[in-house]
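Quick one, probably user error.
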């Protein structure tokens, strides 16, 4: 089974096997966003178990 090429660019696996994605809202229109929005928006986060199941199917 092939790896989904769009997913491999956007998702990383942690050492324990959890799936991490980067939050949005950091690409454009940054002058209109508060400092808090920009700081919270760019961090990586672990996806929920329900979504992780879908990601794992795309990343064998």
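Nope, works fine. Designed sequence:
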């Amino acid at each position: 089974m092939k790896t989904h090429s769009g997913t491999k660019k956007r998702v990383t696996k942690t050492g324990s096997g959890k799936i991490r994605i980067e939050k949005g809202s950091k690409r454009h229109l940054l002058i209109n966003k508060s400092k808090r929005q920009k700081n919270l928006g760019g961090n990586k986060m672990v996806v929920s178990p329900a979504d992780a199941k879908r990601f794992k199917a795309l990343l064998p």
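Residues 22 and 44 are 4 Å apart (CA to CA).
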